[in-house]
Structures are given as C-alpha cells and as structure tokens.
Amino acid sequence: MSAARSPDGSSPRWGAAGRRSRFAVVAAAVLALTVACSTSANSGGTGGGGGSTMTIVTPDTSIVWAIDNGFGGYEQGKNVQATMLRKPFVDSKQGRGVQQQDVYSYTPYLAKGYDVSADGLTYTFHLSDAKSQAGNTLTADDVLWSFERKFNTATSVIPGVMAPSLTDPKSQIRKIDDKTVTFTLPNAGLGTTFLALMSDLCGQIYDSTLLKQHVSADDPYAVKWSSQNPNFGFGPYSVTAYQPGVSVTMTGRDDFVLGAPKIKTINVRIVADPGTRANAVKNGDAQLAESVTPADSSSLAQDSKVIAPQVDNPNTYIMMPLVTNKAPFDNVAVRQAMAYATPYSQIVDNVYRGLAKRTGPGFLLNDAPGYSSAGFPNYTYDPDKAKALLAQAGFPNGVSFTLAVSAADPDTREAAIQIQTAAKAAGFTVTIDEQPAAEFAQQRVNHTSEAFILRDYAITLTPPYELLVYTAPKSSNNFADWEYKPFYDALAAGNALPDALSPQAGAAWNAAEKIYLDQSPIVFIAQVQPNVLVSSTIGGYAWTSDNWIDYFNLSRTDT
Length: 559
What we know:
Elements: H1 19-37, E1 52-58, H2 75-80, E2 85-86, E3 89-91, E4 99-101, E5 107-108, E6 111-116, E7 122-127, H3 140-151, H4 158-162, H5 169-172, E8 173-177, E9 180-184, H6 191-198, H7 208-212, H8 223-228, E10 237-243, E11 247-252, E12 263-270, H9 274-282, E13 288-290, H10 294-300, E14 306-307, E15 316-321, H11 332-340, H12 344-351, E16 356-357, H13 383-392, E17 399-406, H14 410-424, E18 428-435, H15 437-446, E19 451-452, E20 454-457, H16 463-468, H17 485-495, H18 503-519, E21 522-528, E22 532-535, E23 538-539, E24 542-543, E25 555-556
Parallel strand pairs: 1-12, 1-13, 4-24, 17-18, 17-19
Antiparallel strand pairs: 2-5, 3-4, 6-7, 7-9, 8-9, 10-11, 11-12, 13-22, 14-22, 15-20, 15-21, 16-21, 23-25
Pfam families: SBP_bac_5 (PF00496)
Family: Belongs to the bacterial solute-binding protein 5 family.
Protein name: Dipeptide ABC transporter substrate-binding protein DppA
C-alpha cells in the first residue's frame, strides 16, 4: 500500500537566506490560528505521559484519519489508531538512537497474543483490554465491524491490499467470545503476509461503539463523520486541535494499552517550503522535519545537532507508473521504451545526492529469504534502444505525454525535470503537470493521468504482498491500471506454496517479478532513504515499513 504507506515538490530554487524568518512568520501565524480557531475533535482520553512537547513541520499531505478514507497523509491517523499486532524495533547500523523495524517479527499490540491451528489456516487472536479515546473497551465486535467497514467502503483500498489473504470478512472472521476472534485463510502459505498485514495499517481496529452512534442512511459506516472526527481508535494519542492545511495538536493518553507516551504533546505544523522545514530543525524551531530535499539532508547530515536517518535497506522507491488504460502506454513496447528513456544514474546522483541507490530494475527487497533477480531485463538509460522500441510500436516520430507530480514532493519534481530532459533524446516529449497533494492523490485512485511520478512503498514486506500491492485487479491502488493474467497465474503459483519465504517460493516470486518487469507498467527508478531530519535531542526515531513515524516511540532529552 501506499500507504501506504507516503509519504512534497520542487527544483532547488530556494536559497538559504531568509528561511528562518519565513519560518517564524509561518509558525506564528499557525499558532495564532490554532489558538483562535482550533476545533476540539471528539476528545476522549486526553491525558498524557511525560512532560515534553515536540514540533513536527511537514508539507500539506492531506491528512487521512483512517486507511479506508482514501489516499493521503496517514501519519497522524496511525498515531490515533492501533493495530492487532506490531513489528518490534531494533537498533540500526547508523546508531545515534535511530531504529528500524524487524519486518518479519510480529508481537502483541491490541491483541495480547495469537494461536495458529495445526493446518496453518486459522489464526485465533486474544484481545487486550485496550480502551479507545472515547473510553470504550476493545471487543471482538470492534474487530468484526472494522473489517466490515473496510471491505464495504468505496474509498477503501483494503480489499485490493489484503487479497488473497482476506477477501470475505463475513465468512473468514468469526467471533468466539467478546475477547476472542478467529481469521481463517484460504491457504497456509499466506500466513506470513497475513501477520504482517495485521501489524500494518490494515490491522487498525476502530471503536465501533462510538462510530455506530454516527451512522446515517448515506453514511452507513460513519466514514464521512470519521474523516472530520479523528478520535475513533485505540492508539496512543488523541487529537485535541485540528485545522486542515494548517496544524494538528495531539496529546498522549495516560490510559493507552502500552502505557503513556514519553512525549505528551505533538504539534504538527504545515509549512510549505522544504528549505524552511529543514532549517527549522537546524535552528531548533522544530524537532522533526518531513519531506525535506535530498540536498538539505545531505548538507545537514554532518551537523551534530541534526540526524539524517539512514536505513539498511529502504523500502521506499521513486517510481513512475505508466497508466495502461489509454494511449500511449497501452502499448507494452512504448512502456519498455520509457524504461530505457529514464536517466536512473542521473536521478540518483543529481537529485538524491547519495541518499538513493539503484539495485536493479525490480521492486522486491533483495534481502528477503529466497530472493533472486535472475533473468530480469537490464533497464538502463539507452535512448537509442528506446527510439527503436518506439519505431517498433509504430511511433517513429516519437511520443508525447503528460507526467503528473505532487506539489508536496520536492524530490519527485526534480526527478521529473531530469526525466523530461533526458527522455527528449529518446523520442519522448514530456510535459510536467504539478498538482496539489489532494488532487495528485485522487488521480492515483482514478487512473486519469497518462503517467505520474512519486515516492511510494509496499507497507507489508513479504514478496507476495509487494508484487500485488500495485497490481491487484479492480483495485484503486493498481497505479497503472494494469491487469495481466500470466502475471496473476505466476503469483497464484507462489501463493499456493506452504512457506512464502522458502527457496521454492523465491523461485516463484522471481518468475512473477520477471513478467512484471518485462511488461513495465511501472518504472522503478531507485530506492531512497527517509526524507526526514530529526533533532539530536529526539530519541526513538524509527524507520517503519509504512514510512510513517511512530510518535509513541519518541522521547526528548532537553526538556
């Protein structure tokens, strides 16, 4: 998913001079608006552990409070929600307090634990006594209703994301008693992916007692209501003030199931200029900046007051979906030509300044058990090969198309400019369409663009999930609107095996990924490091597979 999930725009036209003063003006305006106009959002438990406060500066990612509300910024929603399981954190090789998830381990969270049947098909979860922000205690009914909502909401990406592990909650999920619920899978080989999904955004459980009070004929699952009223989960924070496009204030809960957060108050401030965000951490005006440019990350990485986190094997990719439901990318040869017209090394060097790497044309993480890249096409920048493929496809005079980018992603816009320039020599005329974050997110769902470029990632890092996340049939998350039976058949062969991480399964995933790359519905450009800067006073920053920060893990040493 994208989530989901992530994860800003722009060329390096901002100078350093005046950034701090601009930040001060923006921050003062935001604080004034928050005090004057903030809307208290159905706050329940609004106590908080610890006594510290931190400020996060971020672009306007169009906050979405639950994964079934559609695409957008999931980070704040992640911290008011909680999942059935969680992936534990381990120290990274970088040190300096930076951590990362162990993506193949799953530990209790809202569930106290789980059992697996002898045949590997049925997972029995034993629920904790977690309380929601509204003070309601977690029950099996919350679990059943949450998945019913996720699978019956038009804006939800869950049906495509959880298939084939979970396709029919009504028949696959069963309440045993108020504190026990079972999930039955179609085959045992899906178990690893299922546990990972229950540890990610898909596994969030909602307070059905609260939400049922707000259903209506035209909003039978209170989806519209919950998009404006965030406190309907069991997570570590409550939202105590929210101004869309301006700010969010979140307060740690004393009654959270894992204990009170170390940081009591999180102030999230929307700041448009990425340079201003970076300087805010450098100058101490904020403790964490998101969606900073690789140039700023690179230049501030040596500053003792700033941490530029590095991940051993990042799962975030810069990628370019080529939407196949219309010309010109309904033609596989044109898609392959675009794969050869993309200046990979140039983007890695000029845009990411050493904070990205190209490990090959593929998308699966190459440290997964059983991984193989044997037989993959060798996509490199080769304008002559691209021209030959265009001529073969019936376009000897070249192809024109529009490439959509998000105004919230500075690095993707810079990459789009690199592509625009380099692809000209390969026979492509590229027009860049810079869109507001909300509009960009919508075109992902509607598949209306001819092509777009973004940073995204598979939230769940098992090979069958990674292969299906952008390709599931009829899914709004099928970026390129690409459906291809030989690929689905190859994927099904892998899913039928008893262990998704075995050498035999690795061979099956290699066969499926080879088809994926040969058909080229998405050009995978490079893996990129987290685009955040963290104050050295903050401990517990952790890379997560969904790339959204876990506020509960954070601490602050200077307050």
